[in-house]
Write a structure and sequence with these properties.
Layout (H helix, E strand, L loop, with lengths): L1 H10 L9 H7 L11 H5 L15 H8 L10 H22 L3 H12 L17 E3 L11 E4 L4 E3 L4 H4 L10 H8 L15 E2 L2 E2 H30 L1
Antiparallel strand pairs: 1-2, 2-3, 4-5
Helix pairs in contact: 4-5, 6-8
Bound molecules: zinc ion (ZN).
Length: 233
């Protein structure tokens, strides 16, 4: 390892090239929502059951790339790029399975505690940290959204880099499973609601006043009509 580090220094190349594919992936701008899937989780083929059906080709090569077992020097650039594309998709699919395991939930909780998924834009949620959530577990269907456990609503990620991430890489269950396993992190719901006002008066009250005035006018007009009828007869 020391020798490798020295080599990097002496050649001065590969400065921002990580030796580990997962490190590289996680450090790529826009991938901040993803957590690190444990290597032994990926190496246990039982966990990946059925995923080979999700990619057209290069499944094994992509898996080797993710676990740094692919001899990339023997590949031409086009093939390498193709495998890299499959690897990123595959990592997302593995990620969706991993984040609902005990280890995965703990990692997502860590990121949630640091508000790495951002905070609820709703004023009355008082900067409540958010959690990523998918609206579908089927890939290439819906992009990822952010769930606020205080107002129980979902929001679009602010950055377009995050807004285009496949929601299936997180799945529909993460936030809800997280709070089931770690209920102490569920924020207390407040009954605070924004009340629309016009010059300090609740809009509702103003509307109520208007309705009352309308009713009063109607009954007054009705009275006049009756009075007229009575006089005519
Ligand atoms: Zn909220």
């Amino acid at each position: 390892m020391e020798g490798a580090a020295l080599d990097d220094v002496s050649t001065g190349s590969d400065s921002d090239y990580s030796k580990y594919w997962i490190d590289w992936f996680l450090n790529t701008k826009g991938n901040e929502y993803f957590c690190e899937v444990d290597e032994d989780y990926i190496l246990d083929r039982f966990n990946l059951t059925g995923l080979n059906a999700e990619v057209q080709h290069y499944y094994l090569e992509a898996l080797d790339m993710i676990t740094d077992n692919l001899d990339e020097d023997s590949l031409d650039e086009k093939v390498r790029d193709e495998i890299d594309k499959v690897a990123r998709h595959l990592y997302g699919l593995i990620h969706a399975r991993f984040v609902i395991t005990t280890r995965g939930l703990a990692k997502m909780l860590d990121k949630y505690k640091k508000a790495e998924f951002g905070r609820c834009p709703r004023v009355l949620c008082n900067l409540q940290p958010l959690l990523p959530v998918g609206l579908s577990d089927i890939p290439m269907n819906k992009t990822v959204k952010l769930y606020c456990p205080r107002c129980e609503d979902i929001y679009n990620p602010k950055s377009s880099r995050h807004a285009t991430i496949d929601g299936a890489y997180f799945g529909t269950s993460v936030p809800h499973m997280l709070f089931q396993v770690h209920p102490s992190y569920l924020p207390t719901k407040s009954g605070d609601r924004y009340v629309p006002r016009i010059f300090g008066f609740k809009v509702h009250d103003i509307a109520e006043q208007h309705r009352w005035q309308d009713r009063a006018r109607e009954s007054y007009e009705e009275k006049i009509r009756e009075e007229r009828k009575r006089l005519e007869n």
